[in-house]
Design goal:
With 188 residues, the protein is of the alpha/beta class. It is 19% helix and 37% strand. The chain is built from four helices and twelve strands, in the order H-H-E-E-E-E-E-E-E-E-E-E-E-E-H-H.
C-alpha cells in the first residue's frame, strides 16, 4: 500500500485516465436544483392551481383517514377523508374534496364544498358549493357561490350582518326563541 491509500497493483494507466476524460459524463449524474418559478406545476384545476402558484401550504386529510373530534389550525386544509366533530380555521381556507365527508360545525375564512357536509358552515369571506357538493345545514357568509348541480339544504344568511355576527360570537349556538304559546302546547 502506498501513500494516500493507493495500492501498487492499481491497474489504472495514463491511457485509461485520458479515455475517462474524453468520455461524456452521464446525463443523470448532475441534476440542477430548479427555483420555484422553474418547477413544473402539478396538473390541477381552478382553485387548487392558484394554491400551488401562491406557494401556500395546504394540509391534507386523505381518503383513508377518519377523524373524530375538534380540528383547529392555522393553515389551509383539504379534507378527502371523513371528519366528525368541529372544524375551526378562522384565518384559512377549508376545502372538502370530492371524496370528503364532513359531519361538523365548520368555521373558516373561506369554505369550498366539493364533497358532502352535514352541519352548519360559517365563513368570514365566502362559501362556495361546487356542482358535486352537498351541504345539509345552514350557511352564513358575506358571499355565497352555488354552482349548478350543487345541493344546499338549509338556511342562508349573507351580507354585512352575517360577518358582524360571526366576529362577535363565531362558536356560540343560536338561541331558541320560546313563546308562551309554545310552552302551553308542550304541556297540553
Amino acid at each position: 500500500m502506498s501513500l494516500f491509500g493507493k495500492s501498487q497493483h492499481d491497474s489504472t494507466t495514463d491511457k485509461d485516465k485520458e479515455k475517462e476524460k474524453e468520455a461524456p459524463a452521464p446525463q443523470s449524474v448532475v441534476v440542477a436544483a430548479k427555483t420555484p418559478a422553474e418547477r413544473p406545476v402539478p396538473s390541477v384545476s381552478g382553485r387548487e392551481h392558484e394554491q400551488f402558484q401562491g406557494g401556500s401550504n395546504v394540509a391534507n386529510i386523505g381518503k383513508s383517514i377518519t377523524i373524530k373530534g375538534d380540528l383547529t389550525g392555522n393553515e389551509d386544509l383539504q379534507i378527502d377523508g371523513k371528519v366528525d366533530g368541529r372544524i375551526d380555521l378562522p384565518n384559512n381556507q377549508l376545502t372538502i374534496g370530492a371524496e370528503g365527508e364532513v359531519k361538523a360545525e365548520v368555521t373558516a375564512k373561506a369554505v369550498t364544498v366539493i364533497g358532502h357536509v352535514t352541519g352548519n358552515l360559517s365563513a368570514t369571506d365566502k362559501i362556495e358549493v361546487e356542482g358535486s357538493g352537498i351541504v345539509d345545514g345552514d350557511v352564513c357568509a358575506p358571499r355565497l357561490i352555488i354552482q349548478e348541480g350543487a345541493v344546499l339544504n338549509g338556511a342562508v344568511e349573507m351580507g354585512h350582518k352575517a360577518t358582524a355576527k360571526q366576529t362577535a360570537s363565531p362558536s356560540l349556538p343560536k338561541p331558541v326563541a320560546s313563546s308562551p304559546a309554545a310552552g302551553a302546547s308542550a304541556e297540553g
